[in-house]
Amino acid sequence: MRLFLSEGSPGSLPVLAAAGRARGRAELLISTVGPEDCVVPFLTQPKVPVLQLDSGNYLFSTSAICRRQNL
């Protein structure tokens, strides 16, 4: 899985906390992107944080990302 974050993004802190709790249970690559970088190809506006799953699907809801990392 790959987690995309932007410094200063309001959803970054809870997502990073969930990633810290999940450390060791799943392989997670954390990438810092700019607030204007479009990470999800089918969204017309930039959105972070974003979790790209191994299947290629994207989660871009902070609460959904936190729930997924707690599994």
TrEMBL record:
It comes from the Eukaryota. It holds the Pfam family GST_N_5. This is Methionyl-tRNA synthetase 1. Residues 1-67 form the Methionine--tRNA ligase N-terminal domain.
